[in-house]
Amino acid sequence: MFATEPLRIVAVSAGLSRPSSTRLLADRLAGAARDRLDAEQDRPVEIRVIELRDLAVDIANHLVTGFPSATLEEAIAAVTESDGLIAVSPVFTASYSGLFKSFFDLVENTALTGKPVVVAATGGTARHSLVLEHAMRPLFGYLRAVTLPTSVYAASEDWGASGDGYTDGLPARIRRAGGELASAITGGRAVSGASRALGLDDEVVPFEEQLAGLRQT
């Protein structure tokens, strides 16, 4: 019975336009993860993309009333119950969009504990690529998710570019991130190692004790 249960990948896209490069990147990342999962195991894979633009009014109403609509509640449940998450936002004012942040503000801060997440972003220029490190990783760190090593930023010029001897092109980065997500979903080191399996939270030496040790020496 267990072997026939599908693996569920949910991609959250905060793109506002249609068509949207943010949605396209979400689709490509989900497809890469599914391809790797299909190649390495026999369980079916379900992909769902949640477009936040369709939930914008519901998100705003929930923020001011405290009551989610049935549609929004179901979308949040899909995110929290997924086996792997892909989160993609356009860059607005050097960070993720307000719509993206507002949605994840509605997710309980322990609901994503241990969940493997690929973070990705789109923008008009490569100058904003650090949004992945200074904004998105800290957000999912706070939510206790396992943010995977490869994050993907797609500037306008990245679409169709093949990269060079020093930098992978966008398709290669998408494949690598999708592969990491697939590995984490099926029990790879990124999700089963360190923090959960070994209980590193219990083994971290408090800073005060480290300082006391230094004083003794």
UniProtKB/TrEMBL annotation:
Its EC number is 1.5.1.-. Keywords: Flavoprotein, FMN, Oxidoreductase. Residues 8-159 form the NADPH-dependent FMN reductase-like domain. This is FMN reductase. It is an enzyme of class 1 (oxidoreductase). One of its GO terms (molecular function) is oxidoreductase activity.
